[in-house]
Amino acid sequence: MKKNYALLLLISTFCGVFQFAQAQISIEAADLPQADTQAIVSTANNPLIIVGISADYTQTWDFTNVPLSENYFNLHFLGNEAPAFPFENATLTQNGTLAQLLGIDISLTGENTPEPQAQAFYSKDAEGNVYLDGMQLDASFIGFNEPLFFTADPPYRFFSVGEYNDNFTADSELTFRVEIDTLIYRIDVAINTQTQIDGFGELILPNSQDQVLRYNEWSDIHATSGFFIDIFGFEVPVPEELVQNILPIPYIDTTFQTQNIRFYAKEKNYPLATVNLNVAQEPAKPIFLQYINAPQAPLVTFEANVSCPDQTVTFANNSEGTQLVYLWDFGDGSETAQTLAPVHQFADNGTYNVALTVTDAAGQTTTYSEDVLVDCEVIGVENIVLDKIVWQQAGNVLWLRNLPQTVKSVEIFALDGKMIASKTLFGQENVSISMENELPAAMYVVKLLNEHHANIITQKIYWQ
């Protein structure tokens, strides 16, 4: 039962989404979506904005108080590269959630659950008007493995060329059907949309200021549903009482109304802003805003923590943004990584230029790189002779053997420069230096100094 309520919501909300045109300026075919149309579109709920009135004088719509939303998607209309049945005549497609595609405040799954993805299919007439042929919806959220198709008969006039005072009427029926055993469950949504280009003026958004036309569209929707059976190619309705005990899916018969205000500007190829109104209130209250936006590119930084002796580096990703995609290049010729915070093992000691490239949902990309020093020359359990000096770690003690007479003191530092221990020598060839506290396994620096406290040898050791 829940599943089919979701289906009804899906189709019935298809309505508040259609038509467009403009005034003082005029909206032409070149101003509507093309095969290469691309834009960043943001959404905001419960916007505190005023959509103006029908008027024959210049108006100003100031939406700058709308918070810059991180809820945005990359709008991209594609050419007719692979039309899907039953939309073979489509010349444009667009992907997104229903709310993104329709520009209305709609949720099929509720809070904290990702919305299903959909693909809309459009065709164009000789004047350049864009018609919605139908949609394909990922239906896994209601338990169907195959996508659901909504077909519009006739195609629904969605984006329109026009100028101030133009009027448009769009009539269509959206049909969804799915076979359940020998029965057919069908939802039919009849839509009548009246659109008037009833205003013109200037629209001010957080990131833009344009001359626009106001498209005021009202849609009357009548939605019905029920079961049918195929008899010799004809779908014959099945009375509700015959199937309710077997398939408790509701029959629907409802009528409602929606209103959208859309603002079109020249050369934007998409409504600069769309406002979905709650017509149950008087006056109607804006409840949803979709607008072309230009969000900031992601901020990218990372930190690298080297672990010895295996030359492994753990990266801490400090990038900021939403819906980010990561690409790591470790600078050593190895394969790239796409995880948030990778751990990478380098084959050799050395300095590597590591680059992190981050892409957000808007397609904006930022790259940050820094040199990472990997120096894990191990001295400890294994003895390493340097200029005849033997360095050896034993527990919490560092032994130095075969020291030259010129060495008068030994100092041990952490890599951050903090002194760990020191010892003054009086000509000893062999000396042990005990650490006051147990040292964690890490890289340290040992300095051998002469009587003038000048450096003779500086050696990095790995304390195990």
Please describe what this structure looks like.
By secondary structure, the chain is mostly beta strands. The protein has 3 domains: 2-292, no CATH class; 302-374, Sandwich (Immunoglobulin-like); 384-463, Immunoglobulin-like (Sandwich), CATH 2.60.40.1930. 4% of the residues lie in helices and 50% in strands. The chain is built from 3 helices and 28 strands. The chain has helices at 2-12, 98-102, 240-243, and strands at 38-45, 58-62, 72-76, 92-96, 118-124, 130-137, 148-159, 167-180, 183-205, 208-231, 234-238, 253-265, 273-278, 285-292, 302-307, 312-317, 325-329, 343-345, 350-359, 365-374, 384-386, 389-394, 397-401, 409-414, 419-424, 431-434, 442-449, 455-463. The strands form 5 sheets. Strands 1, 2, 3, 4, 5, 6, 7, 8, 9, 10, 11, 12, 13 and 14 form a 14-stranded mixed beta sheet that branches. A 4-stranded antiparallel beta sheet has the order 21-22-23-26, with no helix packed on it. It has a 4-stranded antiparallel beta sheet with strand order 25-24-27-28, with no helix packed on it. It is elongated.
